[in-house]
């Protein structure tokens, strides 16, 4: 059965030099077969990209318990970047392990640009749970509208 | 259910323990010059009410302020909703309104003769930072505010001892607030971004309930074109962050409409310190600039992000209970 939900993660990454900068992504995960989801949405990543569309994957595994995120996007000058990391659910620390995502930002050659931590805000839990329902929720509609608006702006700036 | 009064309807009906004010603000479209006018009522817990007329001219080119206040018995003033007369000043607070008057004080005499028209844009619709009727009409918070005209265009003249300034199509606004006392502590800001057809108004405040000062609560409303973005849940402390320093205010909020960050900074800008007396005779100090820099960033939940900036077009006020030694002169 195909599943879809919308998730937002926010946090900070620290480059090799310079202060920490905010990063966040707002994505729809869809799929679910074999624990594999495709991600589509919008990402902000500090000085690298102000706001752009993104794609990626989310892979869930039971043994070892892991939720692996890989969010890919392009900068204005065409560089391909990845935000990637994994949550490792643990019964010893269920809330923290499910809401905190250690993250790395790297370029297409695999060079590490920055690393940090992103978090799921529990105040958004009701909206997150509602987004799992078969009927499209507000979170899905808003993400669709946002992604279209951002993509349109990108096209205008490129064209 | 009792209908809500008009935005500019007078809330003072002779009761002791009341403060109320009507204020106007206009900024030069490109230069760091601004005007602030205000008419207030102070009804102490004991004793007769007084009316006050305030005038401040902010000159960012000379880094000066020209600030005056005149006080008269309330019985000699006239507050009739849209039509206000206090100590030589006369406001007609309508969509096409006027403000005329003369103020005299230690710095000399100032005269103003202004008219305005409501902006045609949807951003000019009346605005309240309190999303619920119970907050606007109920006992909490003790201080209420609304903005009957968030975006106006002013024309006319302002005569100062230093010369006459022609006012031509200056953007500005008119606000109205009232309550049993002044808010314990707040930062309040309003800014128009004419180039973006946008505006923002918000606050971060601490109120006192039963003698205890509560944690800071913030609210913000942003308008751009035909859209209004509400970040005014107020009690949702988990999704708001505010930093308030002597001259700078930063607030970040999240709501179902998205995320917003507003920064206002009046550092090294002309600022006046005003003494706001409370009905119980305690004094609050309002640090008032109308030439603050503003940066607004909004990430709508359903649209692309946008950023608006104003180099010196923001109204920024801080109300505190303590005086500031940088301001030996309190108006």
Going by helix content, strand content and strand pairing, the class of chain B is mainly beta
Largest beta-sheet characterization of chain A: 8 strands, antiparallel, barrel
Write down the secondary-structure element order of chain B.
EEEEEEEEEHEEEEEEEEEEEEEE
Number of domains of chain B: 1
Sheet having the most strands of chain B: 11 strands, antiparallel
Largest interface: A-B, 16 and 11 residues
Keyword list:
heterodimer, A: 159 residues, alpha+beta, 8-stranded antiparallel beta barrel, 3 helices, 50% strand, B: 331 residues, mainly beta, AttH-like fold, 11-stranded antiparallel beta sheet, 10-stranded antiparallel beta sheet, 2% helix, 61% strand, globular
Commentary on this structure:
The complex is a heterodimer of chains A (159) and B (331). Chain A has 159 residues and is of the alpha+beta class. Chain A has three helices and eight strands; from the N terminus they run ββββββαββαα. Chain A has helices at 94-99, 125-130, 138-158; strands at 3-15, 21-31, 36-45, 49-61, 66-74, 80-87, 100-107, 112-119. In chain A, strands 1-2-3-4-5-6-7-8 form an eight-stranded antiparallel beta barrel. The mean pLDDT of chain A is 93. With 331 residues, chain B is mainly β. Chain B has a single domain (18-323), classed as AttH-like fold, CATH 2.40.370.10. In chain B, 2% of the residues lie in helices and 61% in strands. Chain B is built from one helix and 23 strands. Chain B is globular and about 50 Å long. At the A-B interface, helix 3 of A face loops of B.
Short synopsis of the structure:
Chain A is α+β, with helices and mostly antiparallel strands and 159 residues long. Helices cover 21% and strands 50% of the residues of chain A.
């Amino acid at each position: 059965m195909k599943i879809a939900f919308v998730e937002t993660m926010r946090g900070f990454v620290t480059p090799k030099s310079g202060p920490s900068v905010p990063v966040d992504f707002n994505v729809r995960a869809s799929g679910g077969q074999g624990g594999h989801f495709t991600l589509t949405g919008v990402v902000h990543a500090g000085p690298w990209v102000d706001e752009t569309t993104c794609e990626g994957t989310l892979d869930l595994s039971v043994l070892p318990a892991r939720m692996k995120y890989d969010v890919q996007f392009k900068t204005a000058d065409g560089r391909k970047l990845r935000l990637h990391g994994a949550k490792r659910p643990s019964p010893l620390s269920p809330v923290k392990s499910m809401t905190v995502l250690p993250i790395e930002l790297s370029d297409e050659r695999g060079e590490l640009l920055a690393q940090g931590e992103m978090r799921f805000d529990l105040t958004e839990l009701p909206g997150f749970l509602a987004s799992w329902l078969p009927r499209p929720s507000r979170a899905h509609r808003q993400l669709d509208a946002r992604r279209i608006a951002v993509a349109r702006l990108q096209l205008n700036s490129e064209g | 259910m009792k209908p809500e009064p008009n935005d500019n309807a007078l809330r003072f009906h002779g009761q002791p323990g009341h403060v109320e004010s009507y204020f106007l603000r206009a900024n030069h479209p490109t230069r760091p010059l601004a005007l602030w006018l205000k008419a207030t009522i102070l009804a102490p817990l004991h004793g007769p009410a007084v009316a006050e007329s305030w005038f401040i001219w902010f000159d960012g080119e000379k880094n000066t302020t020209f600030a005056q206040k005149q006080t008269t018995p309330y019985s000699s003033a006239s507050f009739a909703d849209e039509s206000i007369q206090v100590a030589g000043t006369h406001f007609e607070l309508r969509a096409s309104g006027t403000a005329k008057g003369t103020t005299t004080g230690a710095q000399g005499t100032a005269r103003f003769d202004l008219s305005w028209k409501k902006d045609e844009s949807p951003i000019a619709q009346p605005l309240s930072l309190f999303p619920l009727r119970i907050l606007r009409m109920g006992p909490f918070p003790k201080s209420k505010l609304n903005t009957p005209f968030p975006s106006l265009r002013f024309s006319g003249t302002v005569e100062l001892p230093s010369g006459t300034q022609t006012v031509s199509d200056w953007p500005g606004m008119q606000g109205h607030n009232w309550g049993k006392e002044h808010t314990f502590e707040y930062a309040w800001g309003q800014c128009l971004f004419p180039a973006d057809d946008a505006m923002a108004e918000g606050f971060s405040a601490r109120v006192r309930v039963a003698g205890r000062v509560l944690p800071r609560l913030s609210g913000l409303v942003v308008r751009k074109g035909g859209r209004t973005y509400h970040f005014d849940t107020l009690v949702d402390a988990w999704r708001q962050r505010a930093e308030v320093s002597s001259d700078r205010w930063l607030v970040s909020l999240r709501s179902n409409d998205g995320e917003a960050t507003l920064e206002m900074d009046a550092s090294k800008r002309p600022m006046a310190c005003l003494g706001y007396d409370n009905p119980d005779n305690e004094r609050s100090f309002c640090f008032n600039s109308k030439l603050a820099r503003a940066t607004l960033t909004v990430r709508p939940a359903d649209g692309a992000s946008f950023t608006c900036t104003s180099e010196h077009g923001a109204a920024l006020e801080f109300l505190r209970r303590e005086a500031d030694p940088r301001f030996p002169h309190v108006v």
